[in-house]
């Protein structure tokens, strides 16, 4: 029996070889560790990769949401429509900005924000829509932009699980007013610690984000606006510069695993890819009404799995203040009880990928 972990970052480090260690050494020997040439280089290179005019490195993806929303003038008393079927960090970032998250339900096939429900949630207090490109698949950005235009709202793309994914031939993070990316180690583009990045084509918005991340300063010791400390350090920036060079190759590797699973796994609801989209498979998520049993059976066969996400944000104790209850987001709650993520990482070889698929089929056939 094999022992296959749900995730294993050592394989990715091996994929990059000496280049990562050389990058770290370069920073250590430079004597410049914060807001230096490595960050500037990463920002330029990521902006070019993604097709944006500006990229602003920050400490993490949650801060990226807060800073982006505040740069748009969104804060206390405002509402931001997003989803409860996501990592809780998305909603926490909205709250950190001073705004209130309002949760839309999801499409049961893609697990992404449901445009029809979004429309029904718009109020005079709504200032932005923040769809999450969950699991690596883009949301319907045409629908999102239409709603934003109709109601005069900002579109903030949460791209933390979809680095490099395409919608209508353009990368996510280029369709809205501003976009946010987490660069947490497990992301498709991940640092070796916490990091995040904001992208936009609006120069004024970019300037506000740059100032905000560094105490509101326009120059050292000259603060012109209220800010905070949210700076990506030079070591993380140097590592990310090496990794963004090969992000397309890493994406192709993930897509190859996803394609293999889709070809070989039977009897479960598998990920879909819309015609005008590319899926970058941050996660490969299957669906079963007997999810917990499937998870246990896979563990008995040496395959690690995880649930993304077992308890929707609106049902978390920390969000009780919103006054929502079980049953308010039926598709979100149904997904939380049925989805299961399979291993998808750089330590998997072809035999491992086949083994995972075979074990899924074996379990499903025995049910």
TrEMBL record:
GO molecular function: pyridoxal phosphate binding; transaminase activity
Keywords from the named record: Pyridoxal phosphate
Residues bearing the modification N6-(pyridoxal phosphate)lysine: 187
Gene Ontology biological process terms from the UniProt entry: polysaccharide biosynthetic process
Residues of the signal peptide: none
Active site per the UniProt annotation: 187
Family stated for the protein in its record: Belongs to the DegT/DnrJ/EryC1 family.
Name of the protein this chain belongs to: dTDP-4-amino-4,6-dideoxygalactose transaminase
Lineage: Bacteria, Pseudomonadati, Pseudomonadota, Alphaproteobacteria, Rhodobacterales
């Amino acid at each position: 029996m094999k022992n296959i972990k749900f995730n294993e970052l050592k394989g990715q480090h091996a994929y990059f070889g000496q280049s990562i260690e050389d990058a770290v050494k370069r920073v250590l020997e430079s004597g410049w560790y914060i807001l230096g040439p490595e960050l500037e280089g990463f920002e330029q290179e990521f902006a070019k990769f993604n097709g944006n005019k500006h990229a602003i490195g920050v400490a993490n993806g949650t801060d990226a949401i807060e800073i982006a929303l505040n740069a748009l003038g969104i804060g206390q008393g405002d509402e931001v429509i997003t989803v409860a079927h996501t990592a809780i960090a998305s909603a926490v970032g909205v709250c950190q900005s001073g705004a209130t998250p309002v949760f839309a339900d999801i499409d049961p096939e893609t697990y992404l924000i449901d445009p029809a429900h979004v429309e029904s949630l718009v109020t005079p207090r709504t200032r932005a829509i923040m769809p999450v490109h969950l699991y690596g698949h883009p949301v319907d950005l045409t629908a999102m932009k239409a709603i934003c235009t109709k109601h005069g709202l900002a579109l903030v793309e949460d791209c933390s699980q979809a680095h490099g994914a395409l919608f209508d031939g353009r990368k996510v993070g280029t369709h809205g007013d501003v976009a946010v990316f987490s660069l947490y180690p497990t992301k498709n583009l991940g640092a070796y610690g916490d990091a995040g990045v904001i992208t936009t084509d609006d120069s004024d918005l970019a300037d506000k984000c740059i100032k905000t991340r560094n105490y509101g300063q326009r120059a050292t010791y000259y603060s012109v606006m209220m800010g905070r400390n949210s700076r990506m350090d030079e070591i993380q920036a140097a590592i990310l510069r090496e990794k963004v060079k090969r992000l397309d190759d890493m994406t192709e590797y993930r897509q190859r695993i996803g394609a293999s699973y889709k070809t070989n796994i039977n009897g479960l609801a598998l990920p879909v890819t819309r015609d005008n989209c590319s899926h970058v498979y941050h996660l490969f998520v299957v669906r079963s009404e007997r999810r917990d049993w499937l998870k246990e059976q896979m563990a008995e066969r040496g395959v690690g799995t995880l649930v993304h996400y077992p308890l929707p944000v609106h049902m978390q104790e920390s969000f009780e203040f919103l006054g929502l209850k079980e049953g308010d987001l039926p598709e979100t709650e149904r997904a939380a009880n049925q989805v299961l993520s399979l291993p998808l990482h750089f330590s998997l070889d072809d035999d491992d990928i086949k083994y995972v698929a075979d074990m899924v089929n074996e379990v499903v056939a025995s049910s």
